[in-house]
Amino acid sequence: MGSASLVNQSYLYCVDTDLGWGNRSYFTFFSQFNRGATSSLLAAVESGVLVLFFLLSSVSNGVIFYTLSSNRRLRTVTNYLVCNLTLADVCFTLCCPLVAVTRVTASWTLGSFACKTIVYLSFVCGFVTIWTLMLISIDRYTCIVRNTKRRISPSLALILIALVWVVTLAAFTPLLLYFVVKDCPHGSEVVSICTLGWPRTPGVSVPVLFTVIVCGVGFLLPATTLLVCHVCIFVKVHKVRVAMAQQRQRCFSTSSALLANTSVWTTATTTNNNNSVINPAHTTTLRTNQPPVLSGSLAPDPKRQSHSLVVPDSPPPHSQPLLPSTGLTTTTFTTLDARRRRSSRELQVVKTLVYLVLLFFTLWAPIFVVFVFIMRDAYWSVMEVSSQAFMGAMCVAYSNAVLNPLAYGLSTERLRGYLHALLTCSGRLAPSPSPTHFSNGAGVGSVGGGMSGGVQVIRSGGGGGGRVLAAKSSGGTSMS
């Protein structure tokens, strides 16, 4: 849009007697004039969207904050940072109803205090949100990549949160001084606008200096940090998953060589913990079609037509080989399953953070770009940015305050369970899927999760102490 058409719309000329600028143009920020025939409709749509952002952000962030702060089990370093994120998001959208009023009235009618506070609160909370996202990424980097004991502790997280607020509140105090209400002539009347008027200093361009610092510290530095952290996390998770896949392949290739063309049926009863000698009544029987070559307590019974392997139900404290010639132990498979579950959790964390990083770049970049152009217009008096462009970029940033809690609430398994219990008023956590899952009653669950022709285990009784009734292997042995 050309500069001529934006004069008396998004730019008004006023005489400045306080800062030494004389007659100059000022950007209207929240106000827009001379919209034409559709002004009422546009104002109503903009106001409705702003109020909707305020309501959605307050409800979603409020629920997440209450859930995290009221459950001791959820008080982790990451969740402390998430609580701070929700608080900053709520404060960031508090000004939406006031801005909505101005989009309808055009002229600023809320006074000087509201003019200073709205802009100051928006900058402070926006920067706290951005830096909190950066701290979350650093925390995940230290946990996943560094895997060291020197990680962010809960007390250090609280100190960092307080430090971010204090530094940001202090850094943006100039906005409290230089955002002012100006009375400017507009046709036959005088209107008021909330605008920014920097002091006139010879040799130093304050608008350019302020813009460079804000964009560097508020966008470029956090964006670079997030990008570097997540590239390292991707590399680490990929290496771990490749190594685990190779280890699983070696283990199950060895076991498949002995169990090829074999149909294994396992039956078992409960184990008497007081027995020190293996009792046939308390053993697991593996029937095979071919007599395996084994020795010792696992040797086959030559009198039985169906050859069997006798294995104790409860392994001794130091795990013994499941199949002597393979070197595989029960601890091997337990360790593999634990590592796979840990890798799955880490992958879920990475997905959540990648989602937040994409939101960061998509939803925060527009407001920084528009702000750079506004400062350029003030420096060269080209007047090419409209108030609608500024408000559109602000609405995109406001939407980040709505989407942040949804990302955490829907992607974190434990938090999702507590949210389900809170929203349904049931007082019971929603069941969460696990790689190895058995129902409380008699049921069937898959061991290791995602098996192709794997082992199916049937348990009876409650909890994890139920008796194993049967286990069947149907040939395939690869685990995903």
UniProtKB/TrEMBL annotation:
Q: Which InterPro entries match?
A: GPCR_Rhodpsn, GPCR_Rhodpsn_7TM
Q: Organism's domain of life?
A: Eukaryota
Chain ranges of the G-protein coupled receptors family 1 profile domain: 60-408
**What membrane topology does the UniProt entry give?**
Multi-pass membrane protein
- Location (main, coarse): membrane
Cite the CDD domains for this sequence: 7tm_classA_rhodopsin-like (cd00637)
Gene Ontology cellular component list: plasma membrane
**Chain spans, region Disordered:** 276-324
Q: What is any Pfam family matched here?
A: 7tm_1
Regions of biased composition (Polar residues) lie at: 281-292
Membrane spanning segments where?
80-106, 118-136, 156-181, 208-235, 349-374, 389-410
Keyword RNA-binding listed? The answer is: no
Q: Which GO terms describe its molecular function?
A: G protein-coupled receptor activity
Subcellular location as annotated: Membrane
- Mind listing the UniProt keywords for this protein, alphabetically? G-protein coupled receptor, Membrane, Receptor, Transducer, Transmembrane, Transmembrane helix
Q: Which family does it belong to?
A: Belongs to the G-protein coupled receptor 1 family.
Q: What is the protein name given in its UniProt record?
A: G-protein coupled receptors family 1 profile domain-containing protein
Q: Which organism is it from?
A: Littorina saxatilis
Classification lineage: Eukaryota, Metazoa, Spiralia, Lophotrochozoa, Mollusca
